[in-house]
Design a protein that fits this description.
Elements: H1 2-8, H2 23-44, H3 47-63, H4 65-70, H5 74-92, H6 101-104, H7 110-113, H8 118-132, H9 137-148, H10 153-160, H11 164-182
Helix pairs in contact: 2-3, 2-5, 3-5, 9-11, 10-11
Length: about 190
């Protein structure tokens, strides 16, 4: 399209404003891509798979960016699109809905590195990660971002399209639910 414009009018710019993505999309992409890839990698197990899923997410968002901006919460909408793309990508690769990497994450925790009893800590961590699968999607997302990705409430809130208060509240409810599943002495509070 740009070549035809230049051929018909040699003074026309090589790239027009219509050829470039919206600056708000570019900024959104730059602010969120790394977090999205880390999240996707948690579920897809491989960096390349994660990047493919996230590239697909941003391609989708770019195609409908004007509509995304009209939603009540564009960040939350984008997060939902990303989460669905990761799930679709996992299914396409014949992986389960909640792949085993969450269990594998048990082997790379601060608690394990500092443990006096590494085998006991692995057992405890595996039970914890299995319990995480019983949380709602929203609770699981918040816990992955805050505990596995190490984000604070404002950082997680910006990525997830929530308020910091909602993130903190979701963490509290998630920890309460984990206590119900695991018992009062075994929650993620000890994992931090």
């Amino acid at each position: 399209m740009t070549r035809n414009r230049r051929r018909n009018n040699p003074t026309a710019p090589a790239v027009t404003a219509a050829d470039r993505p919206d600056l708000s999309f570019t900024a959104f992409h730059q602010m969120n891509r790394a977090s999205y890839v880390r999240y996707a990698e948690t579920y897809l197990r491989h960096r390349q798979d994660a990047e493919e899923a996230i590239d697909s997410t941003f391609e989708h968002l770019l195609r409908c960016w004007d509509e995304v901006l009209l939603t009540e919460n564009p960040a939350a909408y984008a997060w939902t699109v990303m989460r669905n793309k990761v799930t679709d990508h996992a299914r396409a690769r014949a992986r389960t809905r909640r792949p085993p990497l969450i269990d594998e994450a048990a082997f790379n925790t601060v608690a394990l590195r500092d443990a006096v009893d590494p085998i006991g800590q692995i057992t405890e961590s595996l039970a914890l990660f299995r319990a995480l699968r019983q949380l709602t999607d929203r609770q699981q997302d918040v816990m992955v971002m805050t505990y596995l990705q190490g984000m604070n409430a404002p950082e997680a809130a910006a990525v997830l399209g929530m308020t910091s208060a909602t993130v903190r509240s979701t963490v509290r409810h998630s920890l309460r639910r984990l206590r119900e599943i695991l018992g009062p002495d075994r929650t993620m509070e000890g994992q931090r």
